[in-house]
Amino acid sequence: MVDETLALVGVTLCDFTLVTERLANPSDIIYVNSGSIKVSTGGHPLNVSVDLVRLGMDGSKIKVIGSVGNDLCGGYVVSTLRSYGIDTRWVHVVEGQETGKDVIIVIDGEDRRFHVDLGANLQLSAEHVIKALSAIRPTLFHAAVGMLRATDESLQDVLKTAREVGAVTFIDIGVATRPSGSWEFLREVIKEGLVDIFHANLYESRKVLGLNNLDEITHFLLRSGVRAVLITEGETGAVFATNNFIIRQPSFKVRVVDPTGAGDAFQAGFLYYIFSGGRPRESLEAMEKDPEKAAKALAYSQAAGAACVTAPGATEAVTGDNVKRILAEQLNVILKETVVIS
């Protein structure tokens, strides 16, 4: 791993996850299996950061920019990140505010239900993010947009600062529905060519960009200057598009216990692959030119996402060993079924 740095911004949360067959009736009680209720750090920058360390990246190279309250959950979030060696100097502690929380309910056979109290996240200013970027001067800047009102509204200035310090810019759609306002701010920064890497699932992409199908989405993003488009489609697989080719790849087959954090794990896999390949900018350039390298990067990303869903919680099952096991069992089949369109 070369001496490069990654800065991430997005919501910082304390997650409370329940995995159950059904919800209790009013005034009733259900005794769930041991381990079915998890407390963990949550939010895109936290999940991605922890996943990266669990995959093998040096935590000191990872800088989280965020905002928490001066409370029990805030202390838990910061101490957890520090336990992984992650740099928390730019996590702002807000007096008089509670740390953001997310209650996640996973019922067998149904998609997840999220219940979010943003709390101190609403106090994270764009000025703090810009100041952090100027000080950190990261090689790659990852921003999960949609829930940070001030950062979203000043995203143009934030991304311009990231570009000025030499960072590759990576935008993730953190949520399909914003707490307030439209998505015009994101469409504008994309059109201005300020985004190098774009990630979202297909549903998010359609809703946020206002486009109907995958071809329209990839063409719009690539015409706007995005260099790598990553679109995940759940059990269907994923797409990696550049100006030279489009890769369609099937998904890895695993037993799904809890899908929470799968998208973050996918991104962590992609980031780990980029940083492992040398300097992120050079790794990205190599993938743009070589569909074989891009297909392997996509497979590693998907394997990280697949590992994530095999246990309750957003990060518990994401480990280098689990990803290697999944790749050893299925990689050859996945690559054979991968389609490259020039």
Order of helices and strands: EEEHEHEEEHEHHEHEHHEEEHHHHE
Give the N-terminus to C-terminus distance in angstroms: 31 Å
Mean pLDDT over the full residue set? 93
Shape: globular
CATH superfamily: Ribokinase
Helix content: 25-40%
CATH architecture grouping = 3-Layer(aba) Sandwich
CATH class: Alpha Beta
Task: Detail the poorly predicted runs.
Answer: none
Strand content: 15-25%
How many β-strand runs?
Answer: 14
Total domains: 1
Please state the CA-atom Rg, rounded to the nearest Å.
Answer: 19 Å
Largest sheet: 10 strands, mixed
Give the helix/strand class: alpha/beta
State the helix count.
12
| CATH topological fold name | UDP-N-acetylmuramoyl-L-alanine:D-glutamate ligase
Q: Order of strands across the widest beta sheet?
A: 5-4-1-8-9-10-11-12-13-14
Features:
14 strands, 4-stranded mixed beta sheet, alpha/beta, 342 residues, 12 helices, UDP-N-acetylmuramoyl-L-alanine:D-glutamate ligase
Structural notes for this entry:
The longest helix has 18 residues, at 291-308. The protein has a single domain (6-12, 42-101, 119-341), classed as Ribokinase (UDP-N-acetylmuramoyl-L-alanine:D-glutamate ligase), CATH 3.40.1190.20. The chain has a ten-stranded mixed beta sheet, sandwiched between helices. The protein has a four-stranded mixed beta sheet with strand order 3-2-6-7. Helix 2 (72-83) links the parallel strand 4 and strand 5 (91-94). The protein contains twelve helices and 14 strands. With 342 residues, the protein is α/β, with parallel strands linked by helices. The radius of gyration is 19 Å and the shape is globular. Helix content is 40%, strand content 22%.
